[in-house]
Amino acid sequence: MWPYPRIIAHRGGGSLAPENTLEAFQRGFNSGFRAVEFDVMLTKDLVPVVIHDEEFGRTIRGDGRVSDFLADDLLKLDAGSWFAGQFAHSRVPTYRKVLEFCTQHDIWMNVEIKPARGFEALTGEVVAEATREFYQNTNYELPLISSFNLDALSVARPILPDFPFGVLFDQLPADWQQQLRRFDAVSLHTNHQYLNEQRVGDIKQAGCALCCYTVNDVIRAHNLLSWGVDALFTDNLTAIIADFV
Ligand code: G3P
Ligand code: MG
Questions:
Q1: Nearest Cα to Cα of residue 169 among 207, 144, 143, 195
Q2: Is residue 101 part of a domain?
Q3: What is the pLDDT, as a whole number, of residue 245?
Q4: pLDDT class for 84, splitting at 50, 70, 90?
Q5: pLDDT single digits (tens) 189-214
Q6: Is 61 helix (H, G, I), strand (E, B) or coil?
Q7: What is the mean pLDDT of residues 161-189?
Q8: How many alpha carbons lie under 13 Å from residue 19 in its C-beta half-sphere?
Q9: Among residues 43, 6, 149, 207, which one has the least CA distance to residue 157?
Q10: Atom of ligand 1 at shortest distance to CA of 112?
């Protein structure tokens, strides 16, 4: 049985606010969401921050790379006006700030380790160490740690032996069951577009939990859950919440 929430706000607050910003987490929370997924990457000075793209251009205007910026400089940049002018004050949050916000508000987390190219193992290590340090001597519910990047996961796993892990694949490789065992993972996370009822049944037969992204259509969400999908990530918080939460 999947012990975690079934509907998870993607990138903090889905499409309610600029992704992976504190405003997104706050709006998701205000809308009733109590489960989030977000992406963690390293700055040049190895500070874990919550952002999806390693290159600027989409959520941060201009040219640049997260891994070339010191945290102090990155955290000054506008990470919200791409979404709407009213969010021009939104900034990239540190991982620590997001952990604090979510634990204070009792929000369940799926932490996706999102290394920039060339920093895979280092990102796994630094994010795992930051996570271990944050949770030690606390009673907070542990987050689920996941990544597409198997090098990051293999470094993170021994640092966080008591944490639940998930393995992320866009399309499942032939050895996905082996990879789940390798990381002692509780869940398989994958793109819902490649799933159908038969495929979900086959995966569930293997005995793992199945989570899928990014499900924004309410009917599709109902279908996936009825086929046995355990949890889904959504950007469409408004419609999905009206139906599920
Ligand atoms: O963790 C699920 C989902 O977030 C994976 O895709 O690209 O949105 O990080 P992406
Ligand atoms: Mg993600």
A1: 195
A2: yes
A3: 55
A4: very high
A5: 999 999 999 999 999 999 999 999 99
A6: coil
A7: 97
A8: 19
A9: 149
A10: 1
Domain assignment present for 218:
yes
Task: Tell me which residue range forms the domain holding 34.
Answer: 7-44+96-234
Ligand 1 pocket residue status of 233, Cβ below 6 Å: yes
Q: Is residue 191 part of a domain?
A: yes
Residue 198 inside a domain? The answer is yes
Listed in sequence order, the residues at least 6 apart from 17 whose beta carbon sits closer than 8 Å to its beta carbon are 23, 24, 26, 27, 80, 83, 87, 90
Q: Confirm if 15 and 86 have CB atoms less than 8 A apart.
A: no
Position 241 confidence tier, pLDDT thresholds 50, 70, 90: confident
222 is catalytic: no
Residue-by-residue DSSP string for 108-133: EEEEEE-PPTT-HHHHHHHHHHHHHH
Number of domains in the chain: 1
* d(CA 114, ligand 2 centre) in Å: 8
Q: Could you read off the pLDDT of 86-110 as tens digits, one per residue?
A: 999 999 999 999 999 999 999 999 9
Reported in sequence order, the residue ranges of 187-243 that DSSP labels E, i.e. its strands, are: 187-191, 209-213, 231-234
- Residue 167 tokens read as 């393995």
Question: What is the chain's mean pLDDT, rounded?
Answer: 97
| Mean pLDDT calculated for residue range 105-130 | 98
pLDDT tens profile 38-63: 999 999 999 999 999 999 999 999 99
**CA distance linking residue 229 with residue 216, whole number of Å:** 15
Q: Ligand 1 pocket, 235 CB below 6 A?
A: no
Cα distance between residue 6 and residue 103, in whole Å: 19
CATH number of the domain within which 125 lies: 3.20.20.190
Q: How far is the CA of 113 from the centre of ligand 2 (A)?
A: 8
